[in-house]
Design brief:
With about 90 residues, this protein is α+β, with helices and mostly antiparallel strands. Helix content is about 45%, strand content about 30%. The strands form 2 sheets. The protein has a 3-stranded antiparallel beta sheet with strand order 1-2-5. Strand 1 and strand 2 form a beta hairpin. The two termini are about 20 Å apart. One of its GO terms (molecular function) is DNA binding. Keywords: DNA condensation, DNA-binding. This is HU family DNA-binding protein.
């Protein structure tokens, strides 16, 4: 499912226009991004939670040449599925 298909599904399920569904989805995504950028955590009970974790700098290998390279430290987004989501998938 891509973004436009998700917007169509939200509009159909909620009985709202596609424009309203798009606005709601974009607001949700924007707020998730802003919260994570500030180092916060988002938790939707039953669905899952997003958090930010720091990944330390490390040495890696270039697979083409075999040379050692430095990989910079960075922050990564982590998602942990909730019990209801895992139950729906399995």
């Amino acid at each position: 499912m891509n973004k436009s298909e998700l917007i169509d599904a939200i509009a159909a399920d909620a009985g709202i226009t596609k424009a309203a569904a798009k606005l709601a989805l974009e607001s949700f995504l924007g707020n998730v991004g802003t919260t994570l950028k500030k180092g916060g955590r988002i938790s939707l009970v039953g669905f899952g939670s997003w958090s930010v974790s720091s990944r330390a700098a490390r040495d890696g290998r270039n697979p083409q040449t075999g040379k050692t390279i430095k990989i910079a430290a960075k922050n990564v987004v982590k998602f942990k599925a909730g019990a209801e989501l895992e139950g729906a998938v399995n």
